[in-house]
Input
Amino acid sequence: MLDRSKLLTERRLPESMDLDRLSTTAAVELMNAADATAVAAVAGVRAEVAKAIELVVAALGRGGRLIYVGAGSSGRLGVLDAAECPPTFSSEPDMVQGIIAGGNAAMFRAVERAEDESGDGAAAMDDRQVDDHDVVMGIAAGGTTPFVHGALARAKERGARTVFMTCVEKFEGEPAVDVVIRPLTGPEVLTGSTRLKAGTATKLVLNQITTIAMVRLGKVYENLMVDLKLNNQKLWDRGARIVGMLTGLDKASAMRRLVEVDGSVKTAVVMERKRIGKPAAVELLKQCGGNLRRALEAG
Output
């Protein structure tokens, strides 16, 4: 069995040696101070995150996919980030995907042994028919998860670009990938519990990757989610406010325009700003690859 005792995420944090004796307030203060180091660790790997984003933008732009692979908390964070993309950016459900060791059941109940099967990780890449259009990002806070290693090795064999995110120093047997993202968050307040600082750092990195990639793909105008999918009352309200902000229409008029175009914020904005009808607005957006800024700036 691999000796993991020297891994950064398995070491003991000196500041939390008396965790079981601290008052509730002191324990909260300790965890707040520790969590701040996760933000600093992510800032320290911004160059690597940017490289990963460039790979993702290129892949998605050519019709490929971003596929997260992880186990336990790391896997759940990947699935969560993937699940948020369709409602936020109206992306196709398979554009960003999350795979967790143990399958869907592992999202709700720990299936700890599943992470030990490297062959299952490889099989997941075969099942998804990963190819050279795709980016596969393996997430393993402690670095050594066999399921993730197996997936990355098979993804590379199948021609995909690969990214590895871990919160430990470089180690022997680390996956050979295109980009390594290594925010060194240090020992956890609760020794070995990488759902804490390491999990926070993982969430921050995944937020950056998909948000900035979608911005680069034209799914955002200024800082507004103009490609959001209006599938509940809150989002219809937000969509109407966005149309109002970008056109000067009052709330009621913006909502009527949105209803007219079946909830397409971009179509509503183009119609109002360019003073054209719905068919012409739809065609202009199509010619501009769905990019609202290019449509509005078109002569």
Q: What stands out?
A: The two ends are 66 Å apart (CA to CA). DSSP finds eleven helices and five strands in the chain. Residues 286 and 295 are 9 Å apart (CA to CA). The chain has two domains: 8-216, 233-297.
